[in-house]
Structures are given as C-alpha cells and as structure tokens.
C-alpha cells in the first residue's frame, strides 16, 4: 500500500537521524500558540518537517513545523511543533501522516494540545480543557479506504478514544497544582472560517463544549493504532451566540501564549507519572 510505504519512509528517515527511539517515548503535538511547550525539552534535536522524507509541510504561519526529540524531566519525548489541517487542503490521510509516523516509530502514548473556542458558557477563557470525548463534524475520517491491518482493526471501537487513566491523572495533577481544568466534549469542524452565531448555537445544542479545526482526525488515527491518548485544549475565546465578538488569529495566538504556562506545567506533571 502506497500510503503505508510513505509512512515507513518518513519513520526510517527519522530513525536514521535520531537513532533508536527510546522505550516509553511519549509523543506530543502542539497547537496554535502552544509551541512554547517544546522549550521545556532538554537536549533537543530538531528536524524541520520539510527535511523528513515524504512528510507534509504545514502552511500555517503560527506553526513552526518541526519535529523535536529530547526529554522533559527525564521522560523521552518526540514533539511535533505544528500539525496539518483539512482547511489547508490536506486530505485526512495527509493530516494524520505525523501521527502514523509516531505510531510506526513505536510511540505508545500521545498528548495532543490545541487552541479552541469555548462553547460552554460556564468555561473560563484561558483555562485548559481536558477532552473527554469528541464530535467529528468534518464528514471525513482518516480510516476511509484500504485498512492497514498491522496498524489496527477495520472497524475500531470508539467508546473510549481518550484514555481514562490518563484523563484521571490530568485531573489529579491539575487539582494538586491549583490549575482550573475544564472537562468536556471537543468538536472539530473543517474551517478555516469561524462559526456563525447560529452555528454556535447548534453546536452547543449538539453537546459540544469547545470547538476547533484539528485533533479529531489525529485522535482517530492514534486510537486506530492502539496509542494511548490524552488531549487538552487551551480555551482562547468564548463563543456566546447572543453576543458574539470577533476572534482574529492574532487574538487566539496571544491568548494561547498567555495560557501556555499553565498548560506546560500541567503536561510536565502528567509526563512524570505516565505509566
């Protein structure tokens, strides 16, 4: 299968540059304005996405677009500083190329982060939100087409995409650190246009607590490969349909930057105790 060969080529290139990936290595994906998490990586070795064989290259200015290898507080990590979105023109397979490569390299645990708009009126802007479940409203899936049996089942069960033990660990660590941690359902739309007030009202009625343009594709691909998953959103703005305010990309990046310290502190605490 051509797609599988592309993934293997990318993984082989990374192994050639970095050597054998350490056992217990945790994957990280940083979203818009949250690339500062990689500043915590000790002894970093970085590879630009454009240098990796068969690897896509992000077109989003706020995404650095590089793979960073190293450790955080003694825990080996492979961090993807940037991701690929459907609105950039990538297919679901291309948008999850990075996740498939991490799985091919042997990464067994993945932490996804993103910037999202809060739909739940009780949620605080600037707070992290633990993703407990998701709604994929893109109408697309990275599992469409031929299945790679070595990666996972043709019809994977989706009742627990986000690992319950990792979620509980995040809740416990947030409580210990005094970090307000919202908990809810994340919805992915295609974008790049923001939602209208009427759409916002509908999404909330459908059960979404936060909304963004990434993550669900990656979560589906990771779960398909049996990778344990933890996902946390940074709530950069609040969408209230009766008093909507414009939210520019610059505003989102600025708020994510302000909130990145709490996100980084929480994720570092979780990393230390991932079994």
Automatic annotation (TrEMBL):
It holds the Pfam family PNP_UDP_1. Residues 26-272 form the Nucleoside phosphorylase domain. Keywords: Glycosyltransferase, Transferase. Its EC number is 2.4.2.1. Pathway: Purine metabolism; purine nucleoside salvage. InterPro entries: Nucleoside_phosphorylase_d (IPR000845), Nucleoside_phosphorylase_sf (IPR035994), Purine_phosphorylase (IPR011268). Signal peptide: none annotated. The keyword Glycosyltransferase applies. The keyword Glycosyltransferase applies. Transmembrane segments: none annotated. Coiled coil: none annotated. The purine nucleoside phosphorylases catalyze the phosphorolytic breakdown of the N-glycosidic bond in the beta-(deoxy)ribonucleoside molecules, with the formation of the corresponding free purine bases and pentose-1-phosphate. PANTHER family: METHYLTHIOADENOSINE/PURINE NUCLEOSIDE PHOSPHORYLASE (PTHR11904), PURINE NUCLEOSIDE PHOSPHORYLASE-RELATED (PTHR11904:SF9). Belongs to the PNP/MTAP phosphorylase family. This is Purine nucleoside phosphorylase. It comes from Pseudodesulfovibrio portus. The gene is deoD.
